[in-house]
């Protein structure tokens, strides 16, 4: 086995093992974080009887219970009262509304990021891919009634830009949001890899 073969095997090993290790690491860290939300409170009471995962399970049960209670008259009224109260406190209302709108955009009935759009970069023939996040901008600012909000993520990071673009300049394309996000975040390498494999 020569040096070139060894080097190729080493690179293949990195390409195979590193993604697996990183995924396991992210899942592990996410599990520890979610388990610690209530786990750190329960651990002193359970001591040696504490089993990893109890905190996560308790969190899921509690969220489900609160979701069920929010549909009942008395508890639902209390939750709505807290909701209105949080929306009136300076600074807190801004943080609360951003978090609330973000969660609802992913899990609510009217999900954002469900439409993939192509937008032309002004002064060029280049296009950028993004997601329609709002089609009702008139309530936000009436002169924008003929515009839509398009969020364009940046490659290799979660950050991005929000552009307000005239509706006729936005092309909705038939691509799954998950595939579009992978394409953008990978710098276009996802589709290239698939093409090579076919």
Give a description of the structure:
By secondary structure, the chain is of the alpha+beta class. It contains 6 helices and 5 strands. Helix 1 (3-46) crosses helix 2 (54-69). The radius of gyration is 23 Å and the shape is flat. 7% of the residues are buried. The mean pLDDT is 83.
In short:
The chain is an alpha+beta fold and 198 residues long.
What is the number of beta strands?
A: 5
Q: Any low-confidence stretches, pLDDT <50, length ≥5?
A: none
Shape: flat
Portion in beta strands? 15-25%
Our Rg estimate from Cα atoms comes to: 23 Å
Integer average pLDDT: 83
How far do the termini sit from each other?
A: 30 Å
**Major sheet attributes:** 5 strands, antiparallel
Structural class: alpha+beta
Query: Helix-strand pattern, N to C?
Result: HHHHEEEEEHH
What spatial order of strands do you see in the largest sheet? 4-3-2-1-5
Q: Number of helix segments? A: 6
Q: Percentage of helical residues?
A: 40-55%
Q: In terms of topology, how is this protein built?
A:
Elements: H1 3-46, H2 54-69, H3 73-86, H4 92-107, E1 116-120, E2 127-134, E3 147-153, E4 160-166, E5 170-173, H5 177-185, H6 189-197
Antiparallel strand pairs: 1-2, 1-5, 2-3, 3-4
Helix pairs in contact: 1-2
Essential attributes:
198 residues; alpha+beta; five-stranded antiparallel beta sheet; 6 helices
């Amino acid at each position: 086995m020569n040096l070139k073969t060894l080097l190729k095997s080493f690179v293949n090993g990195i390409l195979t093992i590193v993604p697996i290790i990183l995924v396991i690491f992210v899942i592990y860290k996410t599990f520890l974080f979610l388990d610690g939300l209530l786990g750190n409170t329960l651990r002193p009471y359970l001591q040696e009887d504490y089993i990893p995962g109890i905190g996560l399970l308790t969190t899921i049960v509690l969220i489900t219970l609160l979701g069920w209670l929010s549909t009942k008259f008395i508890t639902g009224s209390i939750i709505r009262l807290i909701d209105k109260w949080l929306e009136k406190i300076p600074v807190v209302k801004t943080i609360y509304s951003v978090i609330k709108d973000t969660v609802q955009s992913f899990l609510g009935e009217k999900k954002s990021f469900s439409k993939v759009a192509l937008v032309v970069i002004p002064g060029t023939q280049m296009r950028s891919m993004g997601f329609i996040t709002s089609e009702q901008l008139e309530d936000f600012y009436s002169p924008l009634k003929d515009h839509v909000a398009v969020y364009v993520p940046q490659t290799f990071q979660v950050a991005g830009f929000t552009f307000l673009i005239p509706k006729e300049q936005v092309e909705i394309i038939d691509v799954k949001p998950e595939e579009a996000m992978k394409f953008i975040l990978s710098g276009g390498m996802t589709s290239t890899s698939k093409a090579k494999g076919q």
